[in-house]
Amino acid sequence: MSQPELLNILSDLITDAKKAGADAADAIVADGTSVSVTSRLGKLEQLERSEGGDIGLRVLIGKRQAIVSSADRSKDALRELVERAVAMARTVPEDPYCGIAEPDQLAKNLPVLDICDPTEVSAATLIERAQACEATALAVKGVTNSEGASASWGKSQVAIAASNGFARGYESSGSSLSVSVIAGESESGMETDYDYTSAVYFADMKTPEDVGHGAGTRAVRKLGGRKVTSRKVPVIFDARVARGMISHFIGAINGASVARGTTFLKDTLNTGVFGPHINIFEDPHRNRGLRSKPCDAEGLPNKARALIDKGVLTTWILDLRASRQLKLPPTGHASRGTGAPPGASVTNVWLEAGKETPAALMSDIKDGLFVTDLVGQGVNSVTGDYSRGAVGFWIENGEITYPVHEITIAGNLKDMFKQITPANDLEMRYGLDAPSLRIDGMSLAGM
Question: pTM of the prediction?
Fold first, then answer.
């Protein structure tokens, strides 16, 4: 369906909800088309194409709200959707912070973003890319087997309307390619690793050969892993895993967690959370950004900003509900699906690169760890305590020497954030991005 047709459906839903007794309402529709393939050892294992979408309706009666969703767009189904939503809203408990935006809060002029590739990618092209990627990985000396390669393409359109007068929509697209392979033999030890690429435009992805070679060499490098003794050492996080620090930070400044008091950063607004040399930026309007969008899911304007400015935390991540709880202006960070109320989330975020290469960052390390993979989810969001399994390479006298495994690294995120030193190898690959990061004084538990 076209954007005007989708918005007409939503407008009718909202009108019907008001007639049925709702004080306010909003609705969202998400349509999508996607193609995905999986190939293993040169043979196609899976080919899927899907087309469809869902509609979600939220109605508010006083301070009560209810959300219902449906994939059926027939007149009877949409009428039932309205009836169920209004009936539910009359019975649920009150939420003093729920509600849609006031008209004067809404985005007036939405930017036109380059976030939709007009070219549909065929299944044949995806199969070719996946098989070429896997073949390159298998050709790396030492690679002995494959867990398969996958390629996908998708296009979606989102439309949002509300009884406050907001009615907007936009289209986006995305493509991806990945492969995972095994190196070594069962007798001498085996290791696995992967690589992948994703982009808004299919042509912007890394080549299948680059992805395949990256996965193969990573797996082979890990062969012959050793254990190390427990101690405190400097740790360098490879850029691929360093982005996890961004995720922990974003989770800790989410307004819902702040309002509940369940984050280790709850009292740190406008204070130094990182060292003064650290900046973390967000830009929801980045052209071809993997997380870009012209406004938030409640119709509020969003904008580029520094989340961390010279080490100082400048803002919480707020949707309308959290902003009312905290008695702060909303920040335009609402996101939502069709079956749940809005929540806060970020768009394109990155930690600014430093000036030194990763090699320069490790040049003065007598004994340390270069982390290439992390295992487990041992992060306490309330206290900031951090403890995760790690795989990587031992650093001796400033040089990477041999692979290591069966290690746990630990610390507290408050201290770790203060100790971060970034390298200069930032790449915008994931939507949440960071360069390689050095953190001194981490506890390492080995044998």
Answer: 0.94
